[in-house]
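Appendix B, record 7
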Amino acid sequence: MYMNPSQYPGHHGSQVLYQADPNWQHEMMQKRNTIMGALHPHVGRTIRVTTLDGHTYEGVLVNVDGHHAYLQVNTHAQHHGQHRPIYTPAQYNQILTLVLFELLVIVLLA
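Structure tokens (predicted):
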């Protein structure tokens, strides 16, 4: 159900910084459900994911829910001997949480 931000309790006098078009909500929910349906049968398999921002990740899909895909990546193998970014944890197997809305391309590898 769509509510105007001014209708929310406790938000009197608040300034709206962003408000999505109410018609956009239905389409985004359909896209999210499509992506989740495409991924769910492949839990446990290796995939490559490219995000809207152009980042590419490869790893095992360990879970998918209504909002996120969880990808276990091997950061050591991921960078193939290149310098690892400073923001990458020093773990070799980590689980990335990827937002379904931000996934642009998903490729099944194995």
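Remarks on this record: Helices lie at 22-39, 75-78. The beta strands are 46-51, 56-64, 68-74, 93-99, 103-108.
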